[in-house]
Amino acid sequence: MEQLVQSPQTNTKCYHCGETFADEIVHFQEKDFCCQGCKNVYELLQDHELGTYYTCDVNPGISPSLQNFDYLNKPAFRDKLIQFSNQDISKVSFNLPSIHCRSCLYLLENLHKLDSGIVKTQLNFGKKELSVWFREQEISLGALASLLAKVGYEPLLSEESEGNEKKKRLSQQTQLFIKLGVAGFCAGNIMLFSFPEYLGIEDGNLKYLFGYLNLILGSIALFYSGSDYFKNIWAHIKLKKITIEMPILLGVLVGYSRSVYEILSHTGAGYMDSVSGLLFFLLIGKWFQQKSFDFLSFERKYTSYFPLVITKIMQGKEEMAPLSEIQVGDRLRIRNEEIIPADAILIKGKSNMDYSFVTGESEWVAIQSGNLIYAGGKHHGEMIEIEVKKDLQQSHLTQLWEQQAFKDPSFKAENWENFANQVGIYFTIGLITLATIVALYWIQVDPSKWQNSVVSILVIACPCALAISYPFALGHGVRWLSKSNLYVKDIQALERMGQVDTVVFDKTGTLTLAKSEAPNVYLHRDLSENELDILYSLSLQSTHPLSRRLCTYTQSFGDRKLLSISSFKEVPGKGLEARWKELHIKIGSAKFLGINPNVSPQDFFSSESQLFIQIGDDALGYLDFPWENREGVEFMLRKLQHHYDVFLVSGDKTNHAASLKDWFATEDHMKFECSPMEKMDFIKQLQAEGKKVMMVGDGLNDAGALQQAHVGIAVSDDHLHFTPASDAILQGRSLSRLPEFLNFSKKAITLIKMSFLLSLVYNTIGLSFAVQGNLSPLVAAILMPVNSISMLIIATWGMNIYGKRLKTN
Amino acid sequence: MEIMYLMIFLSLLMAIGFLFAFIWFIRSGQQDDLITPGMRILNEDKKTNN
């Protein structure tokens, strides 16, 4: 077995994992591998005659991890993970996120060939879950996990609570299925036994027998299949609350008790067919709802929200990659004020980590290299390099954004969901009152009709549509918008978008975009190579648009060296300063550098586009970076003004107003020289006038304003500097479509209102029949879920039609 | 009409049989994973080396 290390070749990929080669190639049995690990896996598989692995798919493997899982052998961990164990065999389930193809299935289900301690493995591809039956005397749990990691499938040991919850949910679904099946069985058979009754066949004994059979089946349907309703309503009664399910259950109970009386007293056949049929349809509705919710929550996965870019170091070079491609082991570069995307270890540099998004603690934590940093922390200081230690799904960044704590709770009070609940209570009380009155009336006039009418009233008027239209219409809305690059946080945020009447824009980075041209240079001398290196190293530290552009500018003179600079400081909205050896370097606004603005030429109006440079004591002058308007901004603003009050808040000097005048209604609609604090106050002021304000900003200096606004939209081009304060992230190139998006959200709200109205009309018609006692409870039981499903179809189709229009525009 | 009693009994028995088959099908987890079995069938069993 010869084995040699070769110099890199071009255009070859690792036979095992398909990765392009980095530094060396490991050559083995006429195959090339990117690392020893991949070769080892190959060798291991060959030795155990699992070579088929490589024939199922091209380069199917995953670079193995050498993580040690020995800690799993500790009883504390073992007991949590092992699902079942007797003296001989134990069973455990692992979540293996790296499963991706048929080869994985082949290898994992043949795992017993690698170690005799493994008895059997079974993979659930959809859930990426591997169940392993193994003998603990022969292979420990830790060794098993390490073996999986060694062949490239590092188990993801999720927190125990999460696992339990998942299992519970699953069994709930199983239970729902069984309940549904039992209810269907009972309903079908009861209807069969009711045939003689329907056809008017009179046979005394058979009639009683059928009656008793119906009673048994009906009781099973009600008390087994309907048990969730009882539990739910009992829980609400204990809390002294009314739910919209209450009238339905009341109707069912009235029907059931009447039937029991009729059957036992031999006075009639009862309504067991209606009772069980109703439960069956109710459960179908519930199942359908659950399915659709699962579908929506799947669509709402975090990855769809963060199409943003991270700076990855690949083979010593910076490379931009989408956030979703972060993998354990990746090296990332994090600049000042950027957010850590995944739990990681600090490799290079020092950081002051601001965990206020995570913990609410505003104190910064100093972190030395080698220490762990957690996702969601905001880095302050010089640029650092980190190595990702945990998968993105596992990191809590995702949950962070969804956390409502950032929002003032008062915002939430106004939404439809609450409206639905509020209305639901009055609705329920009104309905029960109506049913009582109708019952009393019919008992006086025609006693044979009272149960029928009461049950029908209670069943037909179910306001379930209230509970269905809202989440479905808005859920689909969020989905469609994300396809057009507007990533809305949740359905409440979308709803608030539909209420907006005022839009406030930030200027730099939002309406305007950095031009790719070289800056106009106003320096009194040329920069030396060394100075360019210094500026490069300094500008790399910051995410501010001007820093980014300075960085590009220095690179235009050739490849730059990264110098180690110290005492880095960024003053938001002002500038950067740092030391290199003895030199003190400052870049930023004239004020920040202490330069008298009179010195500079007359075109000193756009403070945000001029970058002053001072190296040591030498104030070199400044670079003027040209900005251009984002494509379609002018048209967008004009369009918006037809329906909205449009304002501008900017940190710029007032003189800049002239060029923007045409875009905004009056001079009052533009506010200049605002600090981040003043922007927020401006929003507050508008809100005090009773306006529903949407703020569109870059998410960096505007965090306060974004949070204060009714809806805050952060516009982002590439970097990971969103703030959790925002309700939505909009990709820069889609900004010109903002009026469409707003229109879309308004349509969604209209759609919801329309379906409410329709449901109301439907209920009124149904009720008018039910009150007269002309509606059989069974027909009501069929119409009720039909109503719910029609609401669902309206919400889905309506939104899909709007959404498709949105997409094609 | 006596035969009706027997037939009702038998029909109910059959229906209950199907109900239990359904419950067994749900419980055994046959509908839990609808993807993997389809893939599994494509992996040929290599000659077993017993």
TrEMBL record, chain A:
PROSITE patterns: ATPASE_E1_E2
SUPFAM superfamilies reported in the protein's UniProt record: Calcium ATPase, transduction domain A, Calcium ATPase, transmembrane domain M, HAD-like, HMA, heavy metal-associated domain
Transmembrane segment boundaries: 176-196, 208-227, 423-443, 455-474, 751-772, 778-802
One GO BP: copper ion homeostasis
Primary residence: membrane
UniProt keyword Zinc, yes or no: no
Highest taxon listed in the record's lineage: Bacteria
Residues of the P-type ATPase A domain: 312-402
Membrane topology listed for this record: Multi-pass membrane protein
Record localization: Cell membrane
NCBIfam families: ATPase_P-type
Family affiliation: Belongs to the cation transport ATPase (P-type) (TC 3.A.3) family. Type IB subfamily.
Descriptive protein name: HAD family hydrolase
Source species: Aquirufa rosea
Automatic annotation (TrEMBL), chain B:
Keywords, sorted A to Z: Membrane, Transmembrane, Transmembrane helix
Manganese recorded as keyword: no
InterPro entries, per the entry: Cyt_oxidase_maturation_cbb3 (IPR004714)
Bilayer-crossing regions: 6-26
The protein, known as: Cbb3-type cytochrome oxidase assembly protein CcoS
